[in-house]
Amino acid sequence: MISIQNISKVYGTKKVLHIDSLEIPKGESFGLVGNNGAGKTTLFSLLLDLIEPTTGFIEIDGNKVNENENWKKKVSAFIDDTFLIGYLTPEEYFYFLGELRGESRANVDSFLKQFADFFNGEILNAKKYIRDLSKGNQKKVGIVGALIGTPEIIVLDEPFANLDPSTQIKLKKLIKNWTQNEHVTFLISSHDLAHTTEVSNRIVLLDKGQLVKDIITTLETLQELEDFFATSVENESLV
Ligand SMILES: Nc1ncnc2c1ncn2[C@@H]1O[C@H](COP(=O)(O)OP(=O)(O)OP(=O)(O)O)[C@@H](O)[C@H]1O
């Protein structure tokens, strides 16, 4: 269980995030949406102890992420390409992450077999460093890297961006499958409302750092989100 209490982040005089209380139970597929600058990456960065909160705290199974290390065994993430190691080949990177998560090379090799289709023949045995892969293929490496060891909680920032439509479909299937069968908790931020509603059983909408909607996904959710953004565009054009 992830528990977020009175969390805020202030840069200079600007409060870029403030959430009173938010709890994310184990096994939830949690989608985070909002316009540019809404605070999505800030929330994930606080969760991963990449930045310090101005107030409040985030706990994972009772451990405050900025006070103790226990949560690190349970959580993996791909936020952006700073998570990659450009001078490694994808295989070297996957083995490195496997080692970190207690997986042998043989286990990593057998785990990677299920991604043959996802990688489309362009990642494994390609004899290329990660830095020389296309942006989309780098993203695939980062996403699969976050999945190695089947961590309990997987955080993906904008996983669908830069992926071709076939890969987006494969990724959506994987997220749904892992949520149902492996009881993994996914936290996914995206600008793509359709993808997010398809894979998430709950969606939180941030607007200018505030939580403005917290919705259990139903057939109406996509329309509700589209209406919210359409209305905010209309209101802006009146200003
Ligand atoms: N180091 C920093 N210093 C000052 N302001 C920052 C810093 N990091 C983020 N911000 C600001 O915090 C706000 C929230 O940014 P954040 O990256 O969390 O938004 P986001 O919802 O992830 O946006 P996007 O959809 O564009 O990725 C923005 O106004 C951003 O400019």
Automatic annotation (TrEMBL):
Q: Which residues form a coiled coil?
A: none
Q: Pfam families, alphabetically? A: ABC_tran
Per UniProt, residues of the ABC transporter domain are 2-233
Database matches in InterPro entries:
AAA+_ATPase, ABC_transporter-like_ATP-bd, ABC_transporter-like_CS, ABC_Transporter_VariousFunc, P-loop_NTPase
Which superkingdom, per the lineage?
Answer: Bacteria
Q: Does the keyword section mention Glycoprotein?
A: no
GO molecular-function terms, A-Z: ATP binding; ATP hydrolysis activity
Which key words are in the record? ATP-binding, Nucleotide-binding, Transport
Matching entries from PANTHER family are given as:
ABC TRANSPORTER ATP-BINDING PROTEIN ALBC-RELATED
- Its protein name is ABC transporter ATP-binding protein
The upper taxonomy is:
Bacteria, Pseudomonadati, Bacteroidota, Flavobacteriia, Flavobacteriales
